[in-house]
Amino acid sequence: MAHPDPDRLTLLALGDGGPDTAETAHLGTCPACRSDYDSLRTIAGLGREVAAELSLPPVADDVWHRIAAETGQDPAGSPRAGVSAGQDPVGSPRGSVSAGRDAAGSSRPSVSAGQDPAGSSWVGVSAGQDAAGSARATVHALPHRGRRTPARRLFRYAAAVVAAALVAVAWVVTASGGDPGRVVAEAPLSRQPAAPAGAGGQVQVVDDGSGTVRLKVRLTGMPAAEGLYEVWLYDGVNTMIPLGVTAGADLEVAVPPGLSLSRFPVIDVSAQALGQQEHGTSMLRGSVRA
Amino acid sequence: MPRTEGGVRPLVPDDLDRRFAAGDAGALRAVFDRHGPAVQRLARASLRDPADVDDVVQSTFVSAWNGRSTYDPGRAGLLVWLLGITRRRIVDLLRSRGREHRDSEAAAAVSPPETAVAESPERVLDRLIVADGLARLPEAQRLVLHLAFYADLTHTQIAHRTDLPLGTVKSHLRRGMRALREQLESSAEEVNDGAPGSRPPHAARPR
């Protein structure tokens, strides 16, 4: 037979359908297609494992201090070179767009996008769409975290991330069907290493027909929270969006309009110390599937 | 079969990479914040002693900063370049301990005995490289691959979810997967560049 086309080979490597008899035979005899297929399968396998590398613990501050000392850097952070106070959207040297490091979660640049129902200051960047559908992003100052960041550049980065998210949202069709209260997706929440054995949960995505999608989160076997549990949407890469907190009771939260679960398919439940603004320690995690 | 899309770098270039190469004030801290966890992850996959891990992370960033003029943002992503340094620092550290290894390759690949194969340093390194590549793909490719990898959707389901034509989804998947493969393969060269001893043929290559 002819060589399978590259699109087809990609789908096979992703496990999206199986090879038919002719394709199996061809892959058995054509070294070029076989190696193409095998290398793509390697990528597919690694891609599926990537989730294991997304919540890496930060490096201890002490290590940074040693690096700073050896390289002559300001250990407290960096000079805000090139940032004019008047133009800086963050507004003050105490502002920080990227929380940067959290206690236990990812320390990749993270931008919290979404609504801030409680009016508290944990939202770094809130994003939305205006009536005309164009993206806007606003920044709220975060409390000082003991160091300075090149906030303006990070702001640009953050704004770009948010804008990219909104572009994605523009052509992502939500699975909304219209029946009030219809469960459009659900997923188990799996215990993360920090959670005790027996901990678990369930998340349901409910479309109430008003255009707002809500998450119903049920927690089981979770210890009494020392602080609070917080529910986050996660894109699996570098953006986590806090949705709401609970002391352990079941929780129902609205997904901010303009955000798509296609873009943020991972639901994370973290333990947060009281007052902790960054993502704390992951306790449960699940991925919403179609 | 066409294996690559020519010499075009498929990944979105990163402004921070260029700032680091240029020695911008604040770039080191930003790079440390962004890539430190991945560097530490690789070190932990190879070294048991937390103090050794800290030493490797420290020397990686110090070497990187001092040698930033040798980093070419057009050639590799900064993380890949950093992980290459990390790998060499791990080898250096193990050698300086006078441990007996047949060669540096064995040293770099050494891992705690209880570590499963899936957690071998080489596998962790490959994953970190793919994670980095994924984060730097053009948005549309990244989105469809996220849905394929994390939500386990088929191309038909992705098309339904995104309202993209089926052919577009398939072409994004193909381009994204091939870009990741190129990233992994070129990274194998970059990571080994200048390393004493070379890594065996990469897993992404035909065996």
If you had to describe this structure to a student in words, what would you say it looks like?
The complex is a heterodimer of chains A (290) and B (207). Chain A has 290 residues and is an alpha+beta fold. Chain A has two domains: 1-178, no CATH class; 182-287, Immunoglobulin-like, CATH 2.60.40. Helices cover 23% and strands 23% of the residues of chain A. Chain A is built from five helices and ten strands. Chain A has an eight-stranded antiparallel beta sheet, with no helix packed on it. A two-stranded antiparallel ribbon of chain A has the order 1-2. The longest helix of chain A is centred in the middle third of the chain and has 21 residues, at 151-171. Chain A is extended and about 65 Å long. Chain B is mainly α and 207 residues long. In chain B, 63% of the residues lie in helices and 0% in strands. Chain B contains nine helices and no strands. Chain B is elongated. Mean pLDDT of chain B is 80; it is low at 1-10, 100-108, 110-117 and 194-207. Chains A and B meet through helix 1, helix 3, helix 4 and helix 5 of A and helix 1, helix 2, helix 3, helix 6 and helix 7 of B.
Question: Characteristics of this structure?
Answer:
heterodimer, A: alpha+beta, 2 domains, eight-stranded antiparallel beta sheet, 5 helices, 23% strand, B: 207 residues, mainly alpha, 9 helices, 63% helix, elongated, disordered N terminus
TL;DR of this structure?
With 290 residues, chain A is an alpha+beta fold. In chain A, 23% of the residues lie in helices and 23% in strands. Chain B has helices spanning 15-21, 27-46, 50-66, 78-96, 104-109, 121-135, 139-149, 155-162, 166-192.
- Characterize the quaternary organization of these chains: heterodimer
Distance N terminus to C terminus of chain B?
17 Å
Biggest interface: A-B, 83 and 74 residues
Which secondary-structure class do the elements of chain B indicate?
Answer: mainly alpha
